[in-house]
Amino acid sequence: MPSTSALGKKNVHVELCRLPTAAQKDAAIHSKIQDDRVDFVNVRARTRKYTTAKYFYCAVLLRFLAKLLARNQEAIKLKIKVKSGYKLHVDYFRNCGKNDVVQLSDDFQPTLNDDCSVTLWGCTTVKHAFKSAQMTYEINKNGVVYSGTKNACDALEGAHGEVLDILDSVGAPRTCPVKEAVICGHGKHVNIRKHRIKLPVMSGTTTGRMELKTNSGDACIEFSATLSRRLFSG
Predict the structure, then answer these.
(1) At residue 26, does pLDDT exceed 80?
(2) Straight-line distance from the first to the last Cα atom of the chain, in angstroms, rounded to the nearest whole number
């Protein structure tokens, strides 16, 4: 008869070698599924929190960048509004003939302001009225010469942009015949801000000479001016 200790060892051996039942397998699979589901829910929740936080911080960053850009744009606009970045030095703007029918005053000259406007100083005197006028001009810009001939009356009638603003601001005639008159700038301002981008091309020394032949006499005007960049434009 086998001993009690021997039977105990045999039973233990049988328990260790016994295969799991179908119910136990289903229970194990169900438990695994439940654990995976819990893990998936936890991962999805963490992902959702991370995504929400990521979008939140992105929104904050975008708002900050938008405010910064807006401030920079205002600063740029203010800088453009306040500073032209260039200065104009007029060497002379004078008559070059004798008994000119159009006479410039000694203080006649334009000045360029920091806000990209031109101030007109001095007076122009039309000593004799005229009905027709032919203009011959020659302009030397940094060694490059531009020259031509125009009908001055047609040029007056076809004036536009800043030229028209200048004529209107000083009360100059816009068509022929031109009557005897004294036309003064009196510090009038003409805005040239839209041409600010062209200032680098216009920089340098420019000289010019204009001869005017009218039915009542002739006139000659010459000028020399230098446009240069400010060393410290702000």
Answers:
(1) no
(2) 114
